[in-house]
C-alpha cells in the first residue's frame, strides 16, 4: 500500500528533475514498484515525467533504519543536494532509505528519491 506520495517544488537541471516520495510495502523493491505505479497513474505513461516512474532500478542509500520519515527525507535531500554519483544520474537508480513506523502488519516504510528525466 502506498503510504504517501508527495510532490514538492521540483529542481530541474538539464532535462532532469529531482523527486522525493514515500511508500510502504513488504520490502524496498515492492515500495519502489508501488511508487512507480502511483507516479504513472498521476503523471501518465508517456515518459519524461521527472518522477520515479522513469527509474528502472533501486539502490539502498543506507542499511540503517532511520528514526523518522523526516530524518529519511533530510538524508535523501542531502544526497540530492550533494549530487551524489549514485543518485545524480537521471538514468541511474532511485535511492531508498528505510524509516521506522508503527506498521503492525509487518510492512516497512521507505523514502524513495533521485533525479529523473523530464
Spatial extent as radius of gyration: 13 Å
Q: Could you tell me the strand content as a percent range?
A: 25-35%
* Strands in their spatial order, largest beta sheet: 1-2-5-4-3
SSE topology string: EEHEHEE
> By helix and strand content, what is the structural category?
alpha+beta
Which bin fits the share of residues in helices? Answer: 10-25%
Distance between the termini: 26 Å
Q: Mean pLDDT, rounded to whole units? A: 90
Q: Number of domains in the coordinates?
A: 1
Largest sheet: 5 strands, mixed
State the total count of DSSP E strands: 5
Q: Unreliable segments (pLDDT under 50, ≥5 consecutive)?
A: 1-9
Total helices: the number is 2
Q: What form results from the Cα inertia axes?
A: globular
Amino acid at each position: 500500500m502506498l503510504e504517501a506520495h508527495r510532490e514538492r517544488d521540483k529542481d530541474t537541471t538539464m532535462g532532469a528533475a529531482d523527486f522525493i516520495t514515500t511508500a510502504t510495502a513488504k520490502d524496498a523493491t515492492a515500495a519502489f514498484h508501488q511508487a512507480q505505479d502511483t507516479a504513472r497513474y498521476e503523471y501518465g505513461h508517456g515518459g519524461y515525467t521527472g518522477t520515479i516512474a522513469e527509474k528502472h532500478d533501486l539502490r539502498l542509500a543506507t542499511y540503517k533504519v532511520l528514526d523518522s520519515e523526516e530524518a529519511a527525507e533530510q538524508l535523501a535531500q542531502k544526497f540530492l543536494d550533494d549530487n551524489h554519483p549514485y543518485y545524480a544520474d537521471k538514468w541511474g537508480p532511485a535511492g531508498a532509505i528505510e524509516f521506522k513506523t508503527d506498521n503492525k502488519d509487518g510492512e516497512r516504510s521507505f523514502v524513495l528519491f533521485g533525479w529523473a528525466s523530464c
